[in-house]
Amino acid sequence: xxxxxxxxxxxxxxxxxxxxxxxxxxxxxxxxxxxxxxxxxxxxxxxxxxxxxxxxxxxxxxxxxxxxxxxxxxxxxxxxxxxxxxxxxxxxxxxxxxxxxxxxxxxxxxxxxxxxxxxxxxxxxxxxxxxxxxxxxxxxxxxxxxxxxxxxxxxxxxxxxxxxxxxxxxxxxxxxxxxxxxxxxxxxxxxxxxxxxxxxxxxxxxxxxxxxxxxxxxxxxxxxxxxxxxxxxxxxxxxxxxxxxxxxxxxxxxxxxxxxxxxxxxxx
Length: 268
Known about the structure:
The protein is α/β, with parallel strands linked by helices. The protein has one domain: Alpha/Beta hydrolase fold, catalytic domain (Rossmann fold). The protein contains 11 helices and 8 strands. Helix 1 packs across helix 11, helix 4 packs antiparallel against helix 5 and helix 4 runs antiparallel to helix 8. The longest helix has 17 residues.
């Protein structure tokens, strides 16, 4: 996979498909492969550029504090480095939080913004959950096992665990198969999640925006709908029923269909 120098780091990325560029920003602890189920469909219509954010995958993991704004600066620099002037930008959870800063700080670079299971500002409940993940990561000394034991149960509904245990096992195996994130890098990334506050940036977002939530998500629940809808003027909302924090895995066909429809509507 290609790599490119951006600011103080080297960013690893993958590019597939053809058409207008679509930059896919991973969620917490994940690398570029996390959107594999989406790229399979998206790449038929768009050039899908999936990157490893600072601190994850095969991108550099320098010390110091991370913020969602810094991670967005990385993405803006990355786009410039690979010669992509403007792109559709999509992200789930932390990926969406990075997208918020990108679209508000570099509006000329973002054609559309897709915010999935995202949030504008961390509240006390979200901070407690992420703090728990940090505790598990430190106790286990293994980020992949923390994801499987600590994060995955928030990503999928109890009904999916009961109905498709073999599918949940496959997702866990996928997590374990990816490049291992060091615990210290996870702590820096997750500290950026805890400190995230882009509430004051929402009014600066001009790109057409799709906002989606899983009906049964408790991490970034529909409690965040109102600030998004009132803050981002040119936005539309989709709720995925019978899904938790990760509709990208729980209902792949409906997620891809509704998100691709938005992207294609604003292409050209």
